[in-house]
C-alpha cells in the first residue's frame, strides 16, 4: 500500500435499516479507505448446517469496490452458530469450570475435530466466494484468538503426547517437575491425571505453554487454508490483543505473540486505552512496540476505540491525538471498532464512530480531519522505521510462573505490573523501546536491555545475558530473575543463579517489606516516594557496588540495589519493588551510563516525543501533549518543518503545543 490505511469494522448484517450507500458516502467524506468485514457473522453466512449465504458479503464487497474502498475479509470462526452446538455440543470448550454454555463468543474448543471440520468448511466456502473480488487487499484470521482455557479430555490426551515427545519417560518428567511431592509422580503414561486440579506449578505452567502452542497451531492451520486462495499482493493478518484490565494493559497471558505471529505477513493488534483525563498514550505505545517487535516491521491497528463507553468518549482533539500516536509508533493502519453503534445485544454501548442515530457527530467530524491528513501526509509518515537502543525482555513463561508463585499470596500484583512499572517510566522519559523475547537473537543491537522478573529461564538464556553484559552491554535485572529453570524448577544455587556472574550479587532470603525505605541512594527521590513494597530480596554483593540499602533496623545491612562492572559492560540489579519515581531514577542513571540520555530525555511528560525514519530517509519527530495544559519548550531538534502547519523551527526556538494536540516535525 502506498497510503496509510484508515478504516472501520463494518457489519451490514447489524444495520437496523438499509443504508449501505449512505454509510459509504459518509466513509468517503471521512477519508475511510478500508473496512473489515465478515469475521463476526458465521450464523448469517451459514444459517443452517451446509446452507451457505454470502449475500451480505458480496453486496458490501461490490459497493466498496465501486466506491474505491479496500476490504479486509475475516474468517468467521470465533463465534459459532446455534445449529452447530445443538447438533454437536462437544464443540464447546471444557474448562476448569466445566462444560461451556452457549451464548458468548470464543467458547469453543479450538482442537475439537468437529469444530475444525465446520471451521474449515466455512473458510473454504467463503474463500471460494470472495477470492477473485478486486476490492480485497487482505484477510484476517479469526479474531483475538486465544485458547479459551480449553482443557477437556481430548486436550489432556494431546498434552500427554506432548509430554511423551518432550520427556520420553515418566521418570524424567517426575524428576524435572518434582512430582514426588504429595504423591503426584506418575509411573505410567496412562495414569497421567488431568492438569485441571494440579497443585504442581511446573506441571501447570507446562500445560499453559502447551495451550499457547495450541493457539499457534490453530492460527497457522487457518493461514495455510487461506493461502490456497489468496492472490499475489494480498496480506494475511490477525488482530492480537493484550492482557485486559478494562483496557489493553500488558503481555497477553494466553498467547505468545512472537511465535503466534510467525505465519502472518503483517502483525495486527487491537489496542484499547483510557481516554479523557486518563489518556497518556502509554497503552498505545506499549501495544505498538510489541506489535512492531514481533517482526521488526510496521504493523496494523485493526481495532481501536472511537467513542465506545461513556468514560472513553474522547475530548475534542483526542481522536486525532490517538490516531497519530499509533502512526508515531509505526502503525500503517488505524481502524476503529466500529463504524456504527449497534442497537441490540452485548456490545450495544460499545459505541462506534457513529452514535446510535447513525448521523454525523463531533467524533465523526474529527475523524474527517484525520482521514484528510492521513491522505495528505502518507508519503511522509507511513512506514516509519525505528532504531531503538533500549529494549525490554518479556517472557510468557515467567508471566505464567509468577501466576503460580505470586510475590505475595494475597496480592493481585503480577508480572505485567512490573513490566508496566518499567515501561511507563521509560515512556515518560521519552525513551523508545523494542520488545525482546527469550527467542530473540539480536541482543547485541541494544545498548541497554531491561529484564523484568525473568523468573523462568533456561540456562542458555541466562548465559546469553551474561555474555551480552560481558561484551559491553548494559542491563537492568529486577528481583525474581534467574530463579527457576524452563520447567519452573528452582535452581539449587544461591540466587539469582547464573546471572550472579554479571550482577556480582547473591541472596538467600527474601521478605515482605513493612515500613521499609531505601537508604544511601543517589536517585534524588523525595522521601515519601522512597518506600519499597510487597517484595524485597536481602542482597549481598560479591563484586558489585551497593547503590542503595534498606533503611530498616533488621535489614539495614543488606543491599537493595547494586551495580556491577562485568567485562566491558555493566549490570544493575534491583532487589525490591520500588515506586514509579524511584524506578524513573534508576532508569535515568542506567540510560546515562549507557550513553542513551540526550536532550529529548530532558523534556518531561505530558510532552511525549516519538521518532523514526521515513521512506525518504528523513527523520520525523512527533511531539504530543497529553494534557489540558498548554505546553511550551525550547526545540531540542535541528532545523525542522511542521508537516501540519508548514511552520519552520530552529533549534532552541519555542515549541508551543496546545492541549491534546501535537506537532509532526521533519528534520532538515
TrEMBL record:
Catalyzed chemical reaction(s): Hydrolysis of terminal non-reducing beta-D-galactose residues in beta-D-galactosides
InterPro entries (alphabetical): Beta_galactosidase_Trimer (IPR013738), Class_I_gatase-like (IPR029062), GH (IPR017853), Glyco_hydro_42 (IPR003476), Glyco_hydro_42_N (IPR013529)
E.C. number(s) listed in UniProt: 3.2.1.23
Sequence similarity: Belongs to the glycosyl hydrolase 42 family.
Protein name, per record: Beta-galactosidase
Boundaries of every Beta-galactosidase trimerisation domain copy: 389-596
Domain Glycoside hydrolase family 42 N-terminal, residue spans: 10-375
